[in-house]
């Protein structure tokens, strides 16, 4: 069997997605008595900043009995031009799993091609699958299965939006995307998910009957140079109290964080009663512990 990686959500199927969510919730309640990942080491390569992803993976490995190594291109030979293919072959002979956060998505896919151990995408310019594990865990815990529900994505058609498109296909929910002209997600992803996804340019249309409203920064990491023009383009795409009031009465609000109060979301919504962003952030830890178990103890068991 081929080595299983977690580079985008399509690396798992819907039933594995639900299994990971269930296990994440279980791990949240239980403190495992044994150390299932004893002596296992996770290598973590960060080309971009991180708080949640770094802390959750590092703490998760410790809680499972293993450890994690933080590597930045600045301090490794990757930053001096050592090819990804060489770095992947060397590192994967030493560690048991590798997580990468990179600018270019293909860096992660190329790394995985040459890796002997499972590779996890910790965010690229195209996808952020670990965040969706946590978001969906949060929804399932608070509202039950998301199948047939409606999710509204407000804002940039970015890596988070594109991962929601894939989640909609796997978990069978409807996704209404409202983004400014010129900031749509990849059209190929929308076409592949056409039974689940609708694209519009009007936030008030997207939130009708929505059970979950999700947004993200207007300028992702790497887009900071466009901040001023994006603030102009996204002015009508702020999630505020008026927009929330047009969704279902019990709709939840999520944001992967970090958030910019007063830009993509008002402080009132972020701190308000429908916001579950702190549970969502905490669930990164539990969801990724479930993912690490899945990759290291189940789907790739017996390979090393
Ligand atoms: N949501 C998220 O991935 O946060 P960090 O950038 O802090 O890891
Ligand atoms: N879209 C954001 C997500 C941060 C977790 C970014 O890529 O910067």
Question: In words, what does this structure look like?
Answer:
- The chain is of the alpha/beta class.
- The chain folds into 2 domains: 9-128 and 282-297, Rossmann fold (3-Layer(aba) Sandwich), CATH 3.40.50.1370; 131-278, Aspartate/ornithine carbamoyltransferase (Rossmann fold, 3-Layer(aba) Sandwich), CATH 3.40.50.1370.
- 40% of the residues lie in helices and 13% in strands.
- The chain is built from 12 helices and 9 strands.
- The protein has helices spanning 14-29, 52-63, 84-91, 105-114, 129-143, 159-171, 187-192, 203-206, 227-233, 241-244, 267-270, 277-298; strands at residues 41-46, 67-71, 97-101, 119-121, 150-154, 174-178, 197-200, 212-215, 252-255.
- The strands form 2 sheets. It has a 5-stranded parallel β-sheet. A 4-stranded parallel β-sheet has the order 2-1-3-4, with helices on both faces.
- Helix 2 (52-63) links the parallel strand 1 and strand 2 (67-71).
- The radius of gyration is 19 Å and the shape is globular.
- The model has no long low-confidence stretch (mean pLDDT 97).
- The structure holds phosphoric acid mono(formamide)ester and norvaline (NVA).
Q: Estimate what percentage of residues fall within beta strands.
A: 5-15%
Write down the overall geometry.
Answer: globular
Secondary structure tally, helices:
12
Q: What is the topology, as strand order, of the major beta sheet?
A: 7-6-5-8-9
């Amino acid at each position: 069997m081929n080595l299983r990686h977690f580079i985008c959500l399509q690396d798992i199927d819907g039933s594995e997605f639900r299994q990971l969510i269930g296990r994440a919730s279980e791990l949240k309640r239980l403190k495992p008595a044994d150390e299932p990942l004893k002596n296992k080491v996770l290598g973590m390569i960060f080309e971009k900043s991180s708080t949640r992803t770094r802390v959750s993976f590092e703490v998760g490995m410790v809680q499972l009995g293993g450890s994690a190594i933080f590597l930045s291109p600045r301090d490794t030979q990757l930053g001096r031009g050592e090819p990804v293919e060489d770095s992947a072959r060397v590192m994967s002979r030493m560690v048991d799993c590798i997580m990468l956060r990179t600018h270019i998505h293909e860096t992660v896919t190329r790394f995985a091609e040459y890796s002997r151990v499972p590779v996890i995408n910790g965010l690229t310019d195209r996808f952020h699958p670990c965040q969706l594990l946590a978001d969906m865990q949060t929804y399932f815990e608070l509202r039950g299965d998301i199948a047939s529900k409606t999710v509204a994505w407000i804002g940039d058609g970015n890596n988070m939006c594109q991962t929601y498109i894939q989640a909609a296909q796997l978990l069978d929910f409807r996704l209404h995307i409202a983004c400014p002209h010129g900031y749509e997600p990849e059209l190929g992803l929308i076409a592949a998910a056409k039974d689940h996804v609708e694209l519009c340019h009007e936030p008030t249309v997207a939130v009708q009957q929505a059970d979950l409203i999700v947004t993200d920064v207007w300028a992702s990491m790497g887009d900071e140079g466009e901040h001023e023009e994006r603030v102009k383009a996204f002015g009508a795409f702020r999630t505020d109290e008026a927009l929330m009031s047009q969704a279902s009465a019990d709709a939840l609000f999520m944001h992967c964080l970090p958030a910019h109060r007063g830009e993509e979301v008002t402080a009132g919504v972020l701190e308000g009663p429908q916001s579950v962003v702190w549970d969502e952030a905490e669930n990164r830890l539990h969801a990724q512990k479930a993912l690490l178990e899945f990759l290291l103890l189940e789907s790739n068991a017996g390979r090393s």
